[in-house]
Amino acid sequence: MANGPAGQALLALERGQDARHWLANLVAEPVLAHPEEASLFDGAPAVAFTLAATDQHRALAALDEHVEKITRCRLETAYQRMARGELADKREFDLIGGLTGLGAYLLRRGANDELLREVLRYLVCLTQPHQDGHPGWWATDGPTGAGPAWQNGHGNLGMAHGICGPLALLSLALRRGIVVSGQTAAINRICQWLDRWRCGTPPRAWWPEAITHADHARGIVERPGPSRPSWCYGTPGIARAQQVAGLALRDRTRWRLAEDILSWCLTDEQQLAQLGDVSLCHGWAGVVHTAWRASRHNDQLAATLPRLLNGLTAHLARQPPSSRGLLTGATGAILAQRATRTNTPPVTQWDTCLLLSE
């Protein structure tokens, strides 16, 4: 779904066009269903997510069986890892490759709330701290693999690969009345950890992408300033997750603080200048769509949209991506443009895969 025909199929469906060509391409080769490899963005769950926007009920039912098997296998493996007292690999729990992503599909599908609750129960367990004081989602290596700074693992804050993905899923489920024991406490634990690592003075505040073991030992992050604003790792995704958490908990202070920080980020030229492409993942489209979703609760954020949309449109015309994929290509940028221009929630609910939907 990141780079393949799923994005084109969803764009055609969003426009009310015939998507059969792209759907056929989606299943032109055998669909990956191995529990250790399939995820929301690859294999059976990705195909199922796309077909959920169609009337292909028989094929979707067959895929749902695979998604359930994959999810249960992943849950069993995760609980075995917890029982051994080992640290998690971020791909166990994250949105792109892990159980949070499978939970996002189940949230989108709305047909197996009990399996979704099992994923939520796992995420509640994940938020319990380790005996050494690290959070339960402390990962075994670094954000992009091994390296001297990451030899004792890291705490990832991002939406794509970090704890803000689970935070968003727990919060969106709570807002929809899908609740498990300990869910509210888990949301609060994550939010308190994010508070601990927030840098600057609100509203001129930001979060680092990841916390090293040395950061954790010092209790402070030594970074020169905000990194690239993005959906995947940056302040937009992190702030949006906390806005949704505040709305779910009816904590007005938290959601307003998240909105104020996001508003500063979206109007800070130094941060926006770090955007290097138009993608949903880490570029202009992700910023625009995150801002648009967040702005539905805040007029100050809504006021930033025309300028942000102009920035996305200009960059898309000047330097269109070579890929047509959803996450990193032109398709995602066009979908983000469409939602903001029409000010209409996507009929396909495509942005559930980013955990940006309501």
UniProtKB/TrEMBL annotation:
The keyword S-adenosyl-L-methionine does not apply. Signal peptide: none annotated. GO terms for biological process: peptide modification. GO terms for molecular function: metal ion binding. Keywords: Metal-binding, Zinc. The keyword Signal does not apply. Zn(2+) binds at C232, C281, H282. It comes from the Bacteria. SUPFAM superfamilies: LanC-like (SSF158745). This is Lanthionine synthetase. It comes from Amycolatopsis pithecellobii.
